[in-house]
UniProtKB/TrEMBL annotation:
Pfam family, one: CotJA
InterPro entries: Spore_coat_CotJA
This protein's name: Spore coat protein JA
Keywords: Capsid protein, Virion
Length: 76
């Protein structure tokens, strides 16, 4: 199974002067998991497509950083 949100644990040297970040995360876009574009995909309206950055709803991925997720998806 795949997810659009992945995490990893970077190496932390015992000699680092600062407290290490134990877990980092990143987002992967949905188009990485579709090998080809199927016909008749649902589409956004032209105005919505400009806001979302894609015409097809299946390829839309709203990216929220950790701070925005804590605020319910609202930018600060």
């Amino acid at each position: 199974m795949y997810t659009h949100h992945k995490t990893y644990h970077p190496y932390a040297s015992p000699f680092d002067p600062c407290k290490p970040i134990s877990e980092k995360s990143f987002s992967t876009p949905p188009h990485l998991y579709i090998g080809f574009q199927p016909p008749n995909l649902p589409q956004f309206s032209p105005l919505e497509a400009l806001r979302c950055g894609t015409l097809w709803k299946d390829f839309y991925d709203p990216y929220y950083n950790a701070q925005e997720k804590a605020n319910g998806g609202l930018p600060t």
